[in-house]
Every structure is written in C-alpha cells, then in structure tokens.
Amino acid sequence: MTDDPTRTDEHDPGPDRQSDAPAEATRRDPRERIKADARRMRDDAKRVGRETGRNLGQFDYRRPRGPVKADLEDAHGHYPHDTHPILVPGIAIDEQRRKYSLDTIIFAIAGGLTVAFVIWGITSPSSVASVAQTAYDWATLNVGWLFNLVAIIILVSLLILAFSPYGKIPLGKDGETSEFSTFSWVAMLFAAGIGIGVLFFGPSEPLTYFISPPPLTNDPETTEALHGAMAQTYFHWGFHAWAMYALVGGAIAYAAYRRGRSLLLSSIFQSLFGKRQTEGFAGKLVDIFAIVATLFGTAAALGIAAMQIGTGVSIVSGAGPMTNNMLVIIILVLTLGFIISAVSGVSRGIRYLSSINIVLTVGIVALVLFLGPTLYLLNLLPSAFMEYLGSMFDMMGRSLSWGAETQEFQSLWTVYYWAWWISWSPFVGTFIARISRGRSIRQFILGTIFIPSTLLFVAYGIMGGTSIWMYRSGASGFTDSMEAPEVFFTLIDNLPYVEWLPFVVIIVLAIFFITSADSASVVMGMLTSRGDQEPKKWVVVFWGLVMSGIAVVMLLLGDASALEGLQQLVIVTAVPFALVMLFIIVAWFKELRTDPLALRRQYALNAVDNAVVAGADAYGDDFALQVVPTEPGDGANGGIDSEHGDYTDWYQRTDENGEPVGFDYETGEWADGWTPDDDSTAEADAAATTDADSVTASASESDPDSVTEADSGSDRREDHS
Question: Which residue ranges traverse the bilayer (predicted)?
C-alpha cells in the first residue's frame, strides 16, 4: 500500500486482506512504481508537447533575441531580413513583386527559327524531308541510347527522391494546404492521362505488335505475342512517360511555390547556373529549347488528331481515301477555331467542352468494354499488367547492341516515344505543377507517375485487347496491313448499336485539337513573357499558328496516313532537351539540399546526436536536452555555413525592378510600405485586356479589383489532356 493521496478506494486491500498486506505490497510495489513512472512520463510528455505547440504557434522568423544576439552578430554577419535560413517558411510566386514583359531575345530567336522552318517546309518539302531523314538517321543511330538512358535515370531518380527525406518537403510554403482536394487533384491527373493517344494508338499500337512483334521476342499472332504486345504498349505509355512529366512539373512547382520564382523552365536552374546566368544566356537557351521541343511535340499530336479526323470524315462522308490536301484543310479549319477561342473570350466554353471531352472519351472506352468482348478483356487486363511488370527490365535493356532489327524497332517506337514525352514535358509539366501546389514532393511524384499510368493501362488494355480479339476473330475490315488511323473506326464498325459513334469521335478529336493548341500556346507564351501567366493574346495566337504550320510540314514529309514525318522531327528536335532533363535532376536535387525543411532536419539530427553523446558522457542515463548557446562551430549546424549564398540568396526580397528591399517574414510587411493592393487594380485591368483564355480573366472584366496574380495562377487551363 502507498501513501499516494491520489489512489482511490478501489485499490485499498480492505480489512479482510490485512493479513496478506506485507507480501502483497512487496509483490506490487515494483509494478506500481513502474506504472507511476509511466504516468509521470506521459504527463511530462503532454506538458512538453503543449509548450512546444505554443512555441511553434508563436514562431518568430527573425534572428534570436536576448543576450546571445550580440554574440551571434559578432561571430557571423547578417542574414537577409534578419532571418536564419532554417526559419524561412518559403516564398510563393504570387507573393513576389515582379514585372512581366515580352522577352524579345527568346521570342525573336525561337519565333524566327520556327517560322523560317515552316516557310522552308511549305515551299520546299522535299529538301526538308531529305535533311530530316539524314538528321533522324544520325540521331537514332548515335543518340538513341541517350533517350533510353534519360528515361531510366528519370524514373529511378524520382522514385529515390519520393522515398527519401526530401519527399516530405512541400511544393509550397510551410503549413500551406493543398490548393485542390485530393479527389479533385486525382480527377485532374486522370484528365491529363486522357488524350488523342487513347483513340489513335490505343487500338492500333497493340495490334501492330501482335502482328509484328518486336525482334527477338515472340512469334507473330500467338498468345505470347498478345501479352507481349500489351506489355510493350504499357512500357511506352506508362511509368517512364509520366516520370518525365513529374520531373519537369515537380521542379517547376518547387521553384514557383517554394522559392517564389517565375513559372519558367530556366527558373529551375538558379542553384546550378547562378541568378545571373539563369536570367542571362544559359536561362534563355533553356527556355528556347523548351519552346522548340513543345512546338514540335504538340504539333505531332495535332498532326495525329488531323489524320484521325480525316480518316473519320472519309468514312462518314464516303469521300474516298484521305489525302494530304484534305489534312491541310482540316488543320486550317481547326486552327481557325483555336484563334477564335483565343481572342474572342469564349475560353470558358472551351474549358467546359474540354471537360465534356474527357467524359466522352471515357464513355467511348466504356462502350468498347461493354459492347465488345467483355469477359475476354476482364481476363486480359490483369494478365497484361503483370506481363508489363515482369518484362519491364528486359524492355529497358533493348538497344543497338541487340542488332540492326532491334535498333530499327527502337527508332520507330521506343526512342520516338521517349522523344515525344520529353517534348511534351514542358507543356504537361507546367499543367500538373499548377494543380499541385501544397502537395508534398512524395505525394506529387507517386501520384503523377502512378495515377494516370493506371488509367492508361485500363484504357489501352480495353482498346488494344478489343482490336486484337477482332483481328483474331476475322472481323470485317481487319487486315495485317491496315493503317493506324483506320483501326479505331474499323473497331467501331464491328460494334453493335453505335452507328452514330464516328460522328461523336470526330467532335471529340476536333475539341482535343483546339484545346491542346490553345493550352500549349499559352505555355509557350509564358516562356516568352518571362513567366507571365496571362500572356498577351497576340503572342498566344502567334505560337498557335506556328504550331499548326509545323504540323502541316510534318504531314507533308510523308503520305496522308504515315507517321514517319512526325517521328523524324520529334526525335531530332528533342535531343537538346533530353540533355536539359538530366540537368533538371541535378539542379533540383542540389536545391533541395538547401531547403529550409532539409536544413531543419539536419540541424535536429546534429543537435540530438551531439546532446546525447555529451549527456551520456557527463551524466550517464540521467540527463535531459536543453537548448543553450555554444561556441561557433560546435552547435547544431554541424559545419554548415548558414550564411553562404546557397542558403540565403534565394529569400532576399526585391522590388519590381529587382532591387533588394526590406521585408518582415513575421508580419509580411515590406519596408517600403508596398502592399498587394497597390498593383491589384492595374494587374486586373491588364489581365482583362490581354487574356481571353482564362476563367479568372473573364471575372476580372466585371470586377477588376477582385483578381490578383494568386487567383489567376491556379484556376486556368486544366484541360491539358
């Protein structure tokens, strides 16, 4: 029995057990002491937790106060804004004071080169074809290995990053909540995975591999060839492709929403090139490469859409075989639709149509599932996925070393796809960056790689499995020599009750063309306007016209149903940006090492390790941790020079002209008295007159004071599918 006054009567032995009290007490005392110690430790932990929570709630972002401050300032210089780098909460792009304008150098070089190419291609397509073929042969023979290596390195690097401690770093400020709910974010990633490829390559690519398997793999038209065909298709459209988008999108989101920089590809490289070079020659070169890659990558998609539309029109109208002249007319008509959407203020309707487009595409896939060989497809989907996982490393290892036939296959398919995804990465990456603010790096990477890929595995399994099943069953129209644009419409023709579906498909493809051209043109407008999220209308229209012109040239390099011209130019123009992708990995990892959250973790590990060793050495088991000043170099920094420019330069705030200006991170006040309201009216008026492609711009026309840069930066162009 104990004298603890808190003990209740139910623990008292009672008079009827007094004779056993001494023995019982002897047995129970150790247990009671352990329980009492445990209760005391829990109480202490709760008290410390409450005190810690109060302290964190009153977190001061400035240098230490009190008697140690003078000593610290004697030993060290001053931090920007009197704020230690581990205490900076991050800077969002909309908190910066920045003037946007057209970058005449980037616009002149990128625009001049691409316009000259379009003129050359239209006036002398044969000479362009000859040069493109020569460049294509050289690139696939000599740098095909580079594309394979880039795809592998990117996927492996991002998975390592996601599961490393850096994965906890947010793509935003400390404590910032995600801009979109998880459901909405997943839905938008889902939308990003739906595009022209599902209707064009979905039924045709697996059928091609089934009839003509990759060299040194399976015999044609066998069960093994069936599963190998699905695995090869998944390899091209799955994890590797979305890892490329995740790399560019994650790096852009981190630079913009954590470091406060513009939504430019060059902003990623500030830690690698330095601010001067990032805003100078090196940064401009990166943005020019990004524009050229995006132009040709998106133009290839527009060319494919036009080919598919042309095939549909030929079938529906009975106009006969598709010709290049028909394709040019289709592209001109759809380009006119894009121009109208860009300058007339109907972008809200285009966005709604884009959302409807996604629903219609999913509906088409569902119709094929339920009207086609449903049981066969339900069995095929999991088998195809497991075949993909089982053969992934084998497919990753295919290269020129496997022989000339494998090299030719790689050039026509795998290398082409890697080049295409690299070309699309600035466009798609910018979109997913803008919808992922506030997510952790881990959540962003894993979500971006696996959510759209899973969707595509299902969609391509359904479309490809159905086309192979119909071919094996001898369905009408299926042959071993049919062109890729014909496969989907032949598949539809063999389904019951859907005679009306070709008309819907043509509309879906047309909307895809317009929205893709519209969205990609805005991204290129941003790249030529120093990151302005509301680029001028004429800049957007200019890039849309150039993109359509490139699509025409690509199609003129081959016949009306061939992909050679598209493939050649995509691969050749993606070579420079493939190297840029590798530098993005280096730059992002380097910058994450100096992130405030990473520094806090390093300081915490150093402090605890030092304290435990010192405490055990001096006091054995009986010691506690306490924060006290140390001699310079002996503290938690563990040798980190916290005043080095790598840790401090990025959070020095500047005015609109780039001049340093004082800022208080605790109150959010600028030393010169500037407030966001000073520029909000001017910015909203500018947005109302320069952007007819944004929902927020439409709102600003009726209420200019209600729109800020923060509003306009996130609620636009969620149709980049």
Answer: 105-123, 143-163, 183-202, 239-257, 285-306, 326-346, 358-378, 415-432, 444-463, 500-526, 538-557, 569-589
**Rounded-to-integer distance, Cα 274 and Cα 363, Å:** 49
**Residue position matching structure tokens 């149903």:** 561
Which candidate, 622, 701, 662, places its Cα nearest to that of 347? Answer: 701
Q: Which tokens belong to 465?
A: 């499995």
Which parts of the chain have pLDDT scores under 70?
A: 1-77, 193-194, 345-351, 558-563, 677-721
CA distances from 301 to 323, 563, 567 (A): 18, 11, 11
Q: What is the pLDDT of residue 559?
A: 58
Helix residue spans in 528-595 (DSSP H)? 537-556, 564-592
pLDDT of 469 reads 96
Q: What is the DSSP letter of 87?
A: G
> What is the 8-class DSSP label of residue 214?
P
Distance CA 255, CA 247 (A): 12
CA atoms within 13 A on the CB side of 217: 26
HSE of 475 in the Cβ direction (CA atoms, 13 Å)? 20
* Residue 643 per-residue DSSP state: T
- Angle, helices 484-493 vs 196-211, to 10°: value is 100
Q: Which helix (H) or strand (E) holds 463?
A: helix 441-472
Distance in angstroms (rounded) separating the CA atoms of residues 674 and 661: 10
For the packed helices 125-142 and 144-163, what is the interaxial angle rounded to 10 degrees?
60
For residue range 100-120, list pLDDT tens digits in order. 889 999 999 999 999 999 999
Distance CA 221, CA 468 (A): 9
Length, in residues, of the chain: 721
pLDDT value for 307:
86
Residue with tokens 């009975």: 318
Q: Are 562 and 134 in contact (CB under 8 A)?
A: no
Tell me the two tokens of residue 72: 């610290």
> 670 pairs with which residues across the strands?
663
Q: What is the pLDDT of residue 640?
A: 81
Amino acid at 77: G
Kind plus residue range of the DSSP H or E element containing 670: strand 669-670
CA angle, residues 513, 504, 716, in degrees to nearest 5: 40
Say how far apart CA 327 and CA 553 lie, in whole Å: 11
Name the DSSP class of 89: -
The answer to whether 254 and 408 are in contact (CB under 8 A) is: no
Are the CB atoms for 565 and 556 separated by under 8 Å? yes
Question: Residues 617-635, buried b or exposed e (16+ Cβ, 10 A)?
Answer: eeeeeeeeeeeeeeeeeeb
The pLDDT score that the predictor gives to residue 195 is 72
CA angle 664, 666, 671 (to 5 degrees): 15
Q: How far apart are the first and last CA of the chain?
A: 74
